[in-house]
Write a structure and sequence with these properties.
The complex is a heterodimer.
Chain A lengths: L1 H9 L1 E4 L2 E4 H20 L6 H17 L13 H12 L4 H28 L2 H12 L2 H9 L4 H16 L3 H14 L8 H8 L10 H16 L3 H5 L1 H6 L7 E2 L5 H4 L7 H22 L7 H18 L3 E2 L4 H13 L4 H20 L7 H23 L18
Parallel strand pairs in A: 3-4
Antiparallel strand pairs in A: 1-2
Chain B lengths: L2 H9 L2 E4 L2 E4 H17 L10 H22 L2 H12 L2 H9 L4 H17 L2 H14 L5 H11 L5 H24 L6 E2 L4 H5 L11 H23 L6 H18 L3 E2 L2 H15 L5 H19 L6 H22 L2 H7 L8
Parallel strand pairs in B: 3-4
Antiparallel strand pairs in B: 1-2
Classes of the chains: A mainly alpha, B mainly alpha.
Chain lengths: ~400, ~350
């Protein structure tokens, strides 16, 4: 009996080209089931965002149908509203349906994160670990299944984009990036990494056409429904004008150190120009570093720009570390000594989530968290600096650069 | 060649105007950052500062870039110095929000440094003397000049000029400050008084805490000079910057009645220091946060985090600089060799 079970567990199972030990498959199945169970268990929690915004939008869509998209009652990008519209057509409770959809995407996000880890490390074991960790990240669980937020949608698209870019399928990667931009403006946090890839000949200008094309494709149905085109073009600008009651909305960044309750309007402009200036300098510096563009380079660039921009842009929400957390997980599995920083970052995010959801003040000062976040930014910045100065990565001045990510 | 490759090669194409050589990307950054620097000063209530101060801030960034270029011969480092200084948050806080004039002091200091670099000692003396007369917050730089004099980098008559200027400014300023009846011993500058308590003792003719602070500063600086006397002067450029940064910070840390604008010069100096020694990046980063926290408290009347924390951070930065200086000058090695318990000369 004992030997029989052990043999069974060690048996290899083939699914297409993919081969996996039965024990590993069982492990993945158990993780998946547990991850599903926790999401089912908390599905009935009603967050304030749902009762104030989402339910109002849904009732508008339910009463007026697709034509409702002509109105200006929503400030999210139209593609999210199409998903909400589809949700209204389903014969189940809207909140459950919406959360269910986002939770399904959690699993897809975990799988793509695993794929990226496999691509970067070549280890199937680490990839499975990434899958499991992503599914059990508190911020991932809380975001969709408790808060009924949909940050997984654009995160998944970004993850897919990076996955295909790393596989040197540039067009596919850029279409996904364009799609992510059509869903969320926050996609731009990591945009400078694409500029660096362009300078290093990994992408061309023609690939950037995917961003406006996908954005226009995203707003087209809403325009057909009757919303003015100019309004749809400027929907992200309208979003930027909201949430001006604090310079940092439970997000551990520089405003939690220097003060987040004053110059609310002035710092919108000044903060944006400041980060613009910082990005110019950073990109200028990196552009001159002629290095081999490896998978690690790409992950480090995404991480660094994701952390840098959110640290200085005003009016950041606690949820905006979602993408960087996913890439920190990838990086933590590539460079295991950096794994504690991934754990720290995941913890930083949870504090803001917990305060929002429980309506209790955070036990840890956001100022302290902001110092930890600064330390994380410095650590990743130093890693990038060392990577760019690594003699093994540097190319001679006259060397022709390869057009693929190594 | 396709459009992409043409644009990429354009970015790194070298241009020449007279003796000046630059890449297109360098020119692009210089133009864009100048525009951004102007824009960053526009969102505030009163708009950008008066054009004379705008020019002073711009010239300060340019002069610091020239200084870095002379020290490192690196065009990119010089350009990055220019870029960082133009959008430095303390620069915006001082000139645009506070409408202060600390940029003039910083400009004087950078000019003095350029003269020192050129070996024009009297012009250095002149610029440094004007700086010392300009504001008492630069008094610590006098101690750094004393080290230069000790190590025969300055002549006695030059040092005496500086001593006269600095001494006169300190005497005039503190005669007024001590009798002014201030209720605080520091004005939004996170120094020792944020740790020991910044409320002045009231009902006295002169606040004893401030008076003690004044003499304590003088005593500590003389002690530091005595320590530095044992070491040997280093010729590295970063050493000089570190020396001025340390003494400048040390004096402002212990002198009473300092204000938030103290930080301006040290933030500028720290950026120059970082460009000479990139591994020292925590120094400008922490000083920037500490100084800006002071400005923020000044504007808003309250600080997000306890000012004592910023004061402690500033102390750590200052202590680090001091220990590094003593290490470089060989003073710590000397002390280790002559164990204190057996030291008999």
């Amino acid at each position: 009996m004992d030997q029989c079970v052990r043999n069974l567990l060690n048996r290899k199972i083939s699914i297409g080209k993919y081969e996996i030990a039965a024990s590993e498959a069982l492990f993945l199945a158990a993780l998946t089931l547990l991850a599903a169970a926790v999401r089912v268990a908390v599905r009935s929690f009603i967050a304030e965002d749902w009762s104030v915004y989402w339910s109002a939008w849904l009732s508008e869509l339910e009463t007026k149908g697709f034509r409702a998209l002509a109105g200006d009652f929503y400030d999210y990008a139209p593609p999210t509203m199409y998903i909400l519209y589809l949700v209204t057509l389903l014969p189940v409770n809207s909140m459950t349906a919406f959360k269910g959809l986002c939770c399904l995407l959690d699993f897809a996000g975990a799988a793509v994160t695993g794929g990226i880890v496999k691509e970067c490390t070549g280890s199937a074991g680490k990839a499975r670990l990434a899958y499991g960790i992503f599914l059990f990240l508190p911020t991932v669980i809380l975001n969709a299944s408790v808060w009924s937020q949909c940050d997984i949608i654009y995160t998944l698209l970004i993850l897919c984009s990076v996955y295909f870019l790393l596989k040197n399928r540039t067009w596919t990667g850029m279409w996904f990036y364009g799609a992510a931009f059509a869903f969320k403006l926050q996609t731009l946090f990591i945009f400078p990494f694409l500029v660096i890839l362009w300078v290093r000949r990994r992408v061309d200008l023609k690939h950037f056409i995917t961003i406006p094309v996908m954005y226009l494709a995203g707003i087209l149905p809403a325009w057909l429904a009757g919303r003015p085109f100019s309004e749809l073009l400027g929907i992200y600008a309208f979003q930027g004008g909201k949430d001006r009651w604090s310079l940092s909305i439970k997000f551990p960044n520089i405003y939690q150190i220097i003060g987040n309750n004053y110059f609310l309007d002035e710092y919108v402009g000044a903060g944006m120009y400041l980060i613009l200036g910082i990005l110019m300098m950073v990109m200028f510096y990196i552009a001159y570093r002629k290095v081999r563009v490896t998978k690690e380079t790409v992950i480090l660039l995404i991480l660094f720009f994701g952390l840098l921009t959110t640290y200085f842009i005003p009016h950041m929400h606690e949820r905006y570390l979602y993408v960087t957390d996913a890439f920190l997980l990838v990086y933590g599995l590539m460079r295991v000594k950096r794994f504690p920083w991934f754990l720290a970052s995941a913890f930083l995010g949870v504090v803001g989530y917990a305060e929002y959801l429980s309506k209790n003040a955070a036990l840890v000062s956001y100022g302290v968290l902001a110092w930890i976040q600064l330390a994380l930014l410095v650590v990743i910045g130093l890693d990038l600096y060392r990577h760019l100065h690594d003699p093994e990565q540097m190319l001679p001045a006259e060397a022709q650069e390869e057009r693929r990510i190594l | 060649m396709n459009v992409d490759d043409m644009l990429r090669s354009l970015l790194f194409r070298r241009f020449r105007i007279g003796r000046l050589q630059f890449d297109f990307l360098e020119a692009l950054l210089a133009v864009c950052i100048t525009g951004t620097a102007y824009l960053i000063r526009t969102p505030f209530e009163y708009g950008p500062p008066h054009w004379t101060y705008l020019i002073a801030e711009w010239y300060l960034a340019l002069a610091a870039a020239v200084l870095v270029f002379r020290y490192t011969a690196g065009r990119k480092r010089a350009l990055l110095t220019y870029a960082v200084l133009l959008i430095l948050p303390t620069g915006v806080a001082e000139g645009t929000i506070l409408r202060g004039n600390a940029c003039v002091g910083a400009l004087l200091f950078i000019c003095a440094f350029l003269f020192l670099e050129d070996g024009r000692r009297w012009l250095f003396t002149l610029a440094a003397a004007v700086l010392l007369l300009w504001s008492v917050r630069y008094a610590g730089l006098l101690a750094a000049c004393a080290v230069l004099w000790q190590k025969e980098e300055l002549k006695t008559e030059q040092f005496l000029c500086l001593l006269t200027a600095g001494g006169a400014r300190i005497a005039v300023a503190y005669r007024a400050y001590l009798q002014a009846g201030y209720t605080l011993t520091t004005f939004h500058w996170p120094n020792i008084y944020e740790i020991v308590g910044r409320e002045s003792i009231q009902g006295q003719l002169i606040d004893p805490i401030a008076l003690v602070g004044l003499f304590l500063t003088a005593g500590l600086l003389v002690l530091a000079l005595w320590l530095f006397r044992m070491g040997t002067m280093r010729r590295e450029r970063a050493f000089l910057i570190r020396l001025f940064l340390f003494f400048g910070l040390a004096a402002a840390y212990f002198l009473p009645y300092m204000d938030q604008s103290c930080g301006y010069l040290f933030c500028v100096l720290a950026v120059v220091y970082f460009m000479l020694e990139p591994k020292e990046f925590p120094v400008p980063m922490l000083l920037q946060i500490v100084a800006y926290a002071g400005y923020q408290e000044c504007f808003n009347g309250e600080s997000m985090m306890p000012m004592a924390l910023f004061a402690a951070i500033q102390f750590l930065v200052m202590a680090y600089l001091g220990v590094r200086l003593l290490q470089e000058m060989g003073v710590i090695r000397l002390w280790k060799e002559k164990s204190l318990s057996t030291w008999t000369d």
